[in-house]
Write a structure and sequence with these properties.
Layout (H helix, E strand, L loop, with lengths): L10 H10 L4 E3 L8 E6 L4 E7 L4 E4 L1 H4 L8 E2 L4 E5 L9 E10 L8 H6 L3 E5 L3 H4 L7 E3 L10 E6 L20 E8 L7 H9 L1 H7 E6 L14 E4 L2 E9 L7 E7 L4 H7 L11 E2 L1
Helix pairs in contact: 5-6
Length: 284
């Protein structure tokens, strides 16, 4: 089965769905988030929200990218590509073919401490993102630990595609446009999340410093669940990448995002542009 990236996009039908949860998530303009893209690997049936950090490199969640490989570089050829330059990922304005992808070598979905700390992956494209899309711009990575107070607001931007594994048939994969969800975040606790507290017992310091929890309403069903993208932003800077969540129809709950600040040295080492080693932007 291949993802149908050329399926017709019916805005009227999608807007009807969005009305249900308009107060939680809203349709976003790509020009407001010109770094946002979608990574697609058809053979492995992998879809990931991604963010461009330089002309040839994008970051994405290791929890999503690891579905196609566990360690090391993977040559993707023309079976993997990035769609960008527009809000409708199934009808992209531009496509950039992928040269290779890499998940952080210490990320391991079976080891909870590594899952929380090293949840990041990199994507290198063949051509320049800027040359094909005049409105393109990279995102700045937040390079320090953001200690949030209860009530601090963050924006989850993207299509929320990381939540859909290969088990979902093509018909169930969302077709909605780019969305933004604004909610409160926490860095010292994770409302309604059992897995977070279990991990915190094992490695308190790493979990607190590397995980941000975005508050969500009780889960009812996919049609009414707010679309919370995989890219967590504060002040226009990328602060964290989507990891996981626990869905329940009662009580408090939240989605977990892995902070990028401690992973920037690895990104600097790997994501090198041809003419400038430090080509991507970090907020120092």
């Amino acid at each position: 089965m291949k993802f149908n990236t050329t399926s017709p996009y019916t805005r009227a039908n999608e807007e009807t769905k969005h009305d249900i949860y308009a107060q939680e998530s809203k349709v976003a303009s790509w020009s407001d988030y010109p770094f946002v893209a979608v990574y697609i690997n058809e053979p492995f049936q992998v879809l990931c929200d991604a963010a461009a950090i330089s002309q040839h490199w994008l970051v994405t969640a290791g929890s999503c990218l690891s579905r196609q490989h566990r360690t090391g570089f993977t040559s993707d050829g023309r079976s993997a590509y990035v769609t960008y330059c527009g809000a409708a990922w199934r009808q992209p304005e531009r496509i950039a073919y992928v040269k290779y992808t890499l998940v952080h070598p210490k990320y391991n979905p079976r080891v909870r401490s590594r899952q929380f700390v090293y949840n990041i992956g990199l994507i290198q494209v063949v051509g320049s993102l800027m040359s094909a899309c005049p409105g393109w711009a990279p995102i700045t990575l937040m390079s320090h630990h953001f200690t949030s107070l209860d009530g601090s607001t963050a924006s989850a931007v993207g299509w929320g595609l990381d939540r859909y594994a290969a088990k979902y048939p093509d018909a169930e994969i969302p077709t909605h446009p780019l969305m933004v969800y604004k909610g409160s975040i926490h860095s010292d606790h994770c409302p309604g999340n059992v897995g977070y507290y279990e991990a915190k017992k094992v490695e308190t310091l790493n979990v607190i410093k590397n995980v941000y929890c975005l508050s969500l309403p009780p889960y009812k069903k996919e049609e009414t669940d707010p679309v919370h993208g995989s890219l967590l932003l504060i002040g226009g800077k990328l602060i964290a990448l989507y990891l996981q969540e626990e869905r329940r129809g009662w009580g408090e709950q939240s989605a977990q995002y892995t902070a990028v600040w401690q992973l920037i040295p690895w990104v600097l080492e790997v994501a090198r542009e041809p003419e400038d080693i430090d080509a991507f932007t970090a907020d120092i």
